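anyone else get weird line breaks when pasting these?? whatever heres mine. first is seq + tokens for prot A
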Amino acid sequence: MRIACVHQGYELYGSDRSFAESVAALRAAFPSADIEVVLPRSGPIVHILEAHASRIVFEPLWVLRRQAIARLATVEMARLPVAVFRAWRRLRHCDLVYVNTSIVADYALAARFLPHKAVLHIHEIPEGAMRRILVGLMRWSRADLIFNSRATRAAFGDPKTARTHVVYNGVAGPAAVEPTTYDGKRPLRVLLLGRINRIKGQEILLEAIASMPAELQSRIEMRLVGGAFESTERERALAELVETMGLTGRVSVLPFVSDPSDHYRWADIVTVPSRRPESLGRVAIEAMAYGRPPLVSAIGGLVEVVSDGETGWHVPPGDAAALAAKLQEIILAPEAWRGFVAAGRARYEAIFSEPVAAAAIAAIAADKLKTTMARPGRARAAREAETRP
């Protein structure tokens, strides 16, 4: 049995970790399968894939990124036919091709010709022209679809030409919650972990803290952890914003780390103040796994992750005043949210833990492979292989 797993990234952010967990689930379900992982280049993700992949290959992929649309529509267009042919050839030679995210355009286009072999796992909520492009690609592919939340499926629509599934990302977490030490007598430790981009809302959180009275500001310590995708300019701009707002002593801007465990252990709460819809919200899930209640924007899949007033808090997206008010409430009344820790961990284990998602991914793959293996040509080849000496 040959399985290919295709991913558009090479770092260790949310979608990268989700991909690695899907590969691990496929390996556990099909231990003797030949599993080939396809990446655009080497990077931090490779070391966690090596234990599960038969081999890892690096090939150019035709990836639809917002910041590269102009180049893709012009100079890169000549490369598209070759990329689609390469994807079609891999589909032809494999029993199953699992493609992570909807933005790998060459595989979505090639899947149309062999849809019985393709599964697209969609992890993003696009907007505007990008949404129209990605929805069109999804419908064209006719592949089976996995959405990582109900919000993601609603954004893309539910095509009648393909089987669809909603599977929440499985997230590896610690064996138990970390001890909770905040009692209101020391500064509240606030963590924001994620890419520096127009979606994540780092500037909204900074604005919220800057608007608070000096006495409350003195009761907050904050870490902004992460980097911008191939853009040092964004990283510098965020550091400059912290300085401009007079928050240098209060806010630390720290680089991306492949293992954020120490940051979660340091934190008392974790913020996800996204300005635009998150397809799910992996950081909020990880926060609950560590026993760190998440404070999130009430948008996209985040409302499916965090139960407001039970495992964390919701605030309107882009509303710095509402975020500041909620932080004040958290600082002044720590006893009011002590129960969030246990409730969040229980929610994580029941819905978002790695074994729950792995079982769902494995079941979808097994069902897909059953269909592929049942096709006359494939079944005959399998019988012939079994009778060879």
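and prot B, same format (seq, then tokens)
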Amino acid sequence: MTFDRRTTPVRADLADERLRGLVEAERFTAGTHRRIACAVTSLHRHPSPEAPVDTQAIWGESVTVYDEHEGWAWVQLHDDGYVGYLRSDDLGAPDPEPTHRVRALRTFVYPGPNLKLPHGGWLTLNSKVAVAEIEGDYARLATGGFVYAPHLSALGTWESDPVAVAERFLHTPYLWGGKTSLGLDCSGLAQTALSAAGIAAPRDSDMQEARLGTPVPVTPGLSGLQRGDLVFWKGHVGLMVDATRLIHATGHTMQVLVEPLSVAEERIRLTSYGPISSVKRLPLRKG
């Protein structure tokens, strides 16, 4: 049986208890539930700051911790199932349970309900927080600090248009493995925008292509496409802004940009990932 190393918590010495009988390992564990307790942390392929970064995790994300050693934790992210190593110091307790999601691109955390106070940190879009109470225009977090309340939405309240979310990242620098407004990659942009709209998406473009939406015919003239369609290449993904334009995070300009699909298609086909492999259409959630 073949398993995807990106989403299968198995090593020679340790594996998830749920894999007992399916894989060989010296021991098995159910792990412990924790949450990310920093604005953003990198998930590395190996327990080293020099190891490749596969993705990022953000404040409030649930993780299962299978092992901790010398300052590194081997974890699986609950939202998309990605497995890797992050700094143990970036983990917190599983409680309190989040009540709200950050809906702003970024928001600052203040020591009191006053925008003139020096901020003590920041949170990115889709971060999950526990609100203890609302004090005027500010939400007091159960973990400490205050956030401007209109920058939050109750959990289960979603954006209606993931493309509008993606457009808020216009000109954000390209960052391999990134998924915040400080930097993101193509599949990170797609996953983040879809997540804000309540659409669970895998992390990498090949996973997204395999699991999301229904196929749309790719015509010679690239006609018949609509806003929200996902356009895939073997190693790249973007979202249609309308019938002719694509928004994507691209290493070509090292930023998120909108350009004619025809222009992107020709360049990508000739210089990098080859022809378009598929187009997928999603049933978008409203409200």
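btw re prot B: The two ends are 41 Å apart (CA to CA). The chain has four helices and 25 strands.
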